[in-house]
Amino acid sequence: MKTYYLTVYSKKGENLLDETFEAKDDQEAKDVGTKKLEEQDYQELTHRCVSPDGRLVLFHR
Asked: Known InterPro entries for this protein (predicted)?
């Protein structure tokens, strides 16, 4: 399992969410990240999910 980082920012630039989670690959991380965003109604805010090697898995501005 790899550790991925999910971060969400408000329109004012405040950090609303900064958490890590584990997934077996980038596709699973994308699915888990999307689900977490939907659960907290953050999918339309600026967010990113980054892989352990620094690649963006999810990004929305």
From this structure: YhzD (IPR025544)
